[in-house]
């Protein structure tokens, strides 16, 4: 037995779903009942039904498609292609909506369980790119829209940061942002050239002019060149100045990464999903295990170096002084090689500086620890945990170096 409503047929179905994502992700806490109330049912059903029958029914879920819809209705669009495109978009929209609802329900019902049996991360294409890591690789950038936002990484606690190939090559923190910028460039101007410059403060006109006109310390003549400038915000004047620096300069606004996010990394045929390594020096206890405790200023430098080394590819060593990174060694298959690179970059300024290692030193004598102590560093901060920790402590005592154990490792691959 079939029943029909005397309503005729539909040519177009336009649906705006309940704003579930906006409701449950807002800063205002809502009750479980309010969350359930904001799950759309009827609209979702209409979308799927219309999308399945797209050869006869147009389905629109995005207001940006309204102009194209009007053109189509006026006979100015290719029928089959346009209908299929809208249907695809409708199913994508419905799937993303369902994934957010599913994630929210998991969080509400599973208590402290962090990782669900299955995981869907809805993403929206933010922009197409000129290419990926290499010119022969086509690429696009996608923005995550899940509730457990994916962590893209970054260094947010330092005021100014230069990066190259995902490694910070210069970092400095000062009350005066222009001074911090100059110090960060000076740390490694060769590597900074053609890289990324990032700030955790607004880029105003004065800072933008400094970015545009600052000369490389290598020759005092060449203007520093960057591919990307990143900041929480740019003033209108600052943006105008930066755009005049280079037509190819990309200017990105990035919010500070929140703690407690998940990190996703592709590995072989799957993905590693893990808690983001978002610990700060305030979360870590720097335990002095040597006879000589660090001075307050040396401890602050050790914390700064620790903040930096977390963002450097392993094996990683960072040397800092006065809230400025002096040298960095990264990506070497053994720790002594990373140490030597960092020492070479730091030069004579290594005397009295603080050194941070992202993992423990497996050997001390005639190895990295003794080489670091002999260089003149005042403090070494490392996780500890080696079977030869006592050798590292004895070596520090011999050279009068303060040794700090953090009990936290910061591998980054």
Could you walk me through the main structural features you see in this protein, from its secondary elements to its overall organization?
GO terms for molecular function: IMP cyclohydrolase activity; phosphoribosylaminoimidazolecarboxamide formyltransferase activity. InterPro entries: AICAR_Tfase_dup_dom_sf, Cytidine_deaminase-like, MGS-like_dom_sf, PurH-like. This protein has 413 residues and is an alpha/beta fold. It folds into three domains: 12-109, Methylglyoxal synthase-like domain (Rossmann fold, 3-Layer(aba) Sandwich), CATH 3.40.50.1380; 160-253, Cytidine Deaminase, domain 2, CATH 3.40.140.20; 283-405, AICAR transformylase, duplication domain (Cytidine Deaminase, domain 2), CATH 3.40.140.20. It is built from 13 helices and 17 strands. It has helices at 20-24, 32-37, 42-52, 66-73, 79-109, 177-187, 189-192, 205-213, 236-243, 296-309, 335-346, 368-375, 389-399, and strands at residues 12-14, 58-60, 123-128, 140-144, 160-164, 167-172, 195-199, 226-231, 250-253, 262-267, 270-275, 287-288, 317-321, 324-329, 354-357, 379-382, 402-405. A six-stranded mixed sheet has the order 12-17-16-15-13-14. It has a five-stranded mixed sheet with strand order 6-5-7-8-9. It has a two-stranded parallel ribbon with strand order 1-2. The longest helix is centred in the N-terminal third of the chain and has 31 residues, at 79-109. It starts with 11 loop residues before the first strand and ends in an 8-residue tail after the last strand. The model is unreliable at 149-160 (pLDDT under 50).
